[in-house]
Amino acid sequence: MASGAEMVCAIPSRNPTSSSYRKPLLWPPRRYYKCSLFALLAASASSGVESYILMPRRRTSGYRSQRVGVVGKVAVDANLEWPSGLDRATPAHSQNVDSQVGGDSLLKFSDDVKRVLHELRGMEFDPCIPKHLMGRPSALSYSKTWTLDDWEFHNSRKRYIRYLWNFPHSRLMRRILPQQCTLLAWSLLSVWVENRFIYFKKPQIPLSALGTISTFVAFLLTLRSNHALSRLNDARNLWSKVVLNTREMAQMISAFVYPVDKQLALMLGRHVALFAWLLKSQLRFTKKDDVVEIVRVMLPDKKDADYVLSQRQKPGAVIVRIRQVLAHLGKQHRLTTAEEIAIDHTAHALSGVITATGRIRASPIPTLYTSHTSRLLVFYLFCLPPALHMSGLDSIMTTLMTMVVGFAMFGLDEISHLFEQPFRVIPMYQQSKRSMAAVADAFTCHPPALAGEHRDDEEAGLTQRELTTYWSNNDISQMSDNLME
Mean pLDDT throughout 263-282? Predict the structure, then answer.
């Protein structure tokens, strides 16, 4: 039994004492009472009978309380003037009307997007990115999107002084600190052994031979870094396509599907708004499934939410849903062939993004190349302190030169390893928020009507601000500056 007030409407025959008099018809909850009442009047007018209506009242308490009501007698005129948009239809039609009245709306869609962007994911930075990658909140990082002020600060001529001053707090230095400490210990040990035990004629290690090895090491590290930067650029381009294709899909759904079936269009819009979050959760190496609460909010229908969360590849479930609706409307000839092709083409583009990002995540730089570079790097740095000290440098200069060379090579190797897995560093968090906002904008930011264009829109009386509650309260210029893709 549903919660809240209900009503039971009985349509009697001409003889109120007949057996059919007490046969009830169960109608929807109280919020649909107005449309249901007119449907009852329509059915009564067609037969010219008097109707006894049990008007709704709230129940006293709980789900098991007895329904109470007031019986009212309504004499129906066959020439009754009906409200616009409601035909003299059968109860089956009235049930369809009720389901549309109680369905989704742009206001509910906007409020759900606002809850995700400002409550569930209201943080400025991605909490899944480790602090050693993000750094301080004021620090410049590739893991967040940049504004004009960030670029001005980055291109300042004072950057050299700033980088030297912040060297002790360097994120790269913290990552290679264990390697540097090991190299420092080996440098001091090798110098101490040479000074303590090899006091006679010291063997000379030619630096030219070691320089040849350093050339190969630098060449291998450079190639590996270039490959890693290429993967980073590919991943960033793919995430730009995520924002582009989700916005394109939402705009086509709003233009083609929404005028035909608003409920199906809003259902697809909710799925498309989730696409970036689902893809981010699949690509980011996190043990916690962080999309459950977002899916539950954006998909109020439990069947839709359970279907998406139960899939092995959750972003693919969004594409399956789009094509399901596309096939359904196509069979009913409610979309043109050109509209079907355009929507399916964009769905194919989203599917291609899933495949391309999955390829980058599943395929690293060949491990044989990585292991060979690491072995050669360790061999070179192992031989460097004895070679420098035996060539005539004192203990302090030998240790200092070894640490500088180690910082350069270990740093380059660490950077290539960071960028090899680009989905740990690219700003997918901010891009997912912008993708969701772009999808919502496609439904709530309608352009002015064209000359001769008729819009039967229930939200026509609402202002732009009322439909876009998810927008930031900041100035539009500041907001736009931080929305670059």
Answer: 95
